[in-house]
TrEMBL record:
Phylogenetic lineage: Bacteria, Pseudomonadati, Bacteroidota, Flavobacteriia, Flavobacteriales
InterPro entries in alphabetical order: SusD-like_2, TPR-like_helical_dom_sf
Parts forming coiled coils: none
Pfam families with a match to the protein in the record: SusD-like_2 (PF12771)
Protein name according to UniProt: Starch-binding associating with outer membrane
Length: 492
């Protein structure tokens, strides 16, 4: 596959914003072509989803995969010292969504040259559909993190500095509707590049190997699969709160065609040099700090179950050959516990937005809940096999599955536990599985600020300062702005 070079513009566009207004980034340079904004949004979204930075994404700690070595506040759920929620809002509303909104504006304003008048409507439709799919992905992540959020009035690029917060369940319903329309709007034979904008070359998620029509059609087909897989994710999330809509949505997604192998994965292929290397590498290796070791919860589970993925997830301690994790919430000497595996020290480790392993677990749930999407045990085996394959040890999957067979009588435990292990490098996704299925049973950190593992993030302090009336109303509507307040779909 052709290597896609991330433009230098990414170093300055929409980065370093300090405004509290989530609708306006006063430091942004929007006088550009749409594809540049899309590239920026894609990298910013992947960076947020994949980074282990304690300033913005602590879910490797929350899911007890890693433990901090020295500063253990975030491991114990103190997210206020670093204003983590503020950064999550900036990452998503400013760095991602503002770019996508402006890209749409530029596309809608574009006047095709005479030679492309006939082809432009389909090209425009494809471009807008791809951008909207990314918006749906981003908004779902925000709802899953906070509950009620600014939605219908958000990202108006200065038009509304105090957006209202929409009901989270209503947002989900709208996301499902707009995503279905996006998928329907993609015409795989309709093209994607205009005379002035090579959209194909800018796409970091599904770049076409060449600009020839078959390659572009393949890229658009991949976007359809990703869209349907995201639709399945939305449906599965609603399984306990709105089972009718959940089943309808999942059925539609599966019928239309979801990911079927790792070749369909949605991911960013990071480069070897700064600033375009993996955000994991940035925080683990390039920072010249030893801030993280394995968490005892996961390391012990993998040791007990002879899970050979541990050699990929972690390093052994010194010359002992042992994998040792630290108690969650306790400081750790870096030399005495297992460091993250080689993937974390590799600059080109891809950034995963969604992969087939995740989708296969959703299919397992759909099979278990509603009898759709194939056989549950077969989907479960496919999910685990895909995980082992992703880590380069496919031959070990069969023995592991035999030792950990699918349990139809307690499928939530089977899926929840194995998804937790498999989603090691997808902690936001893992958090969703855990909250929905209640497995594995995780105990709060040793010096936790609350008496349970967090089930949401609290609203940003900046919102209380600049959008107080609306964020206070949202807090009241969801039952309190607490780490222990469940989002609407987390019913058990």
């Amino acid at each position: 596959m052709k290597k896609i070079i991330i433009p230098i513009l990414l170093g300055t566009l929409l980065v370093g914003c300090t405004t509290d207004d989530i609708n306006l980034d006063s430091h942004s340079a929007y006088t550009t072509i749409p594809s540049t904004l899309v590239t920026n949004a894609q990298k910013e979204l992947s960076d947020y989803v994949n980074t282990p930075s304690v300033n913005e994404n602590n879910f490797r700690l929350t899911m007890q995969y890693w433990q901090e070595t020295t500063y253990v506040e975030e491991s114990n759920y103190n997210f206020t010292n670093r204003n983590v929620s503020n950064q999550i809002y900036i990452d998503n509303y400013v760095n991602v969504l503002n770019s996508l909104v402006k890209a749409k504006e530029l596309i809608n304003a574009y006047q095709p040259v005479p030679s492309e008048i006939a082809t432009w409507p389909k090209i425009k439709q494809n471009q807008l559909a791809i951008i909207d799919i990314m918006q749906v992905y981003t908004y779902q992540g925000l709802v899953d993190t906070f509950g009620n959020i600014p939605y219908s009035q958000s990202n108006q690029l200065g038009g509304n500095v105090a957006p209202a917060y929409d009901d989270a369940a209503g947002i989900y319903t709208n996301l499902i509707t707009r995503l279905q329309q996006d998928i329907a709007n993609i015409d795989v034979n309709g093209g994607i590049n205009s005379e002035s904008d090579n959209f194909t070359a800018a796409d970091l998620y599904y770049p076409a190997a060449t600009i020839t029509p078959p390659a572009i059609a393949a890229s658009l087909t991949s976007w359809k699969k990703f869209g349907n897989s995201l639709l399945l994710k939305l449906g599965i999330a609603l399984a306990d709160s709105n089972p009718t809509l959940a089943q309808q949505t999942a059925t539609t997604a599966i019928s239309n065609g979801v990911m079927v192998s790792s070749a369909d994965d949605c991911k960013v292929r990071y480069l070897s040099g700064s600033p375009n290397y993996s955000p994991i590498f940035e925080n683990v290796k390039a920072s010249n700090r030893n801030d993280f070791v394995g968490g005892k919860t996961l390391v012990d589970y993998m040791n007990t179950n002879s899970d050979t993925r541990r050699s990929k997830y972690f390093k052994t301690v010194g010359t002992t050959g042992n994998y040792i994790g630290q108690v969650i919430g306790q400081p750790a000497s870096f030399a005495n516990f297992s460091a993250p595996g080689d993937f974390a020290y590799t600059p080109t480790t891809p950034g995963i937005l969604m992969n087939y392993t995740e989708v296969a677990f959703y299919l397992t749930e759909a099979s278990a809940r509603w009898g759709i999407g194939g056989n549950a045990a077969a989907n479960y085996a496919s999910a685990i096999t895909s995980s082992f394959t992703d880590w380069g040890i496919a031959s070990d999957a069969t023995a592991y599955i035999a030792a950990h067979p699918y349990n139809a009588a307690n499928w939530k435990q089977s899926v929840g536990t194995q998804a937790w292990v498999a989603m090691y490098n997808q902690p936001l996704t893992s958090w969703n599985f855990w909250r929905r299925l209640d497995y594995p049973v995780l105990q709060p950190a040793s010096a936790a600020t609350i008496n349970s593992v967090p089930v949401r993030m609290s609203y940003p302090a900046s919102e209380y300062q600049t959008n107080g009336a609306n964020v206070n109303a949202a807090s009241s509507a969801i039952g309190g702005d607490l780490l222990t307040t469940k989002v609407f779909w987390d019913k058990n």
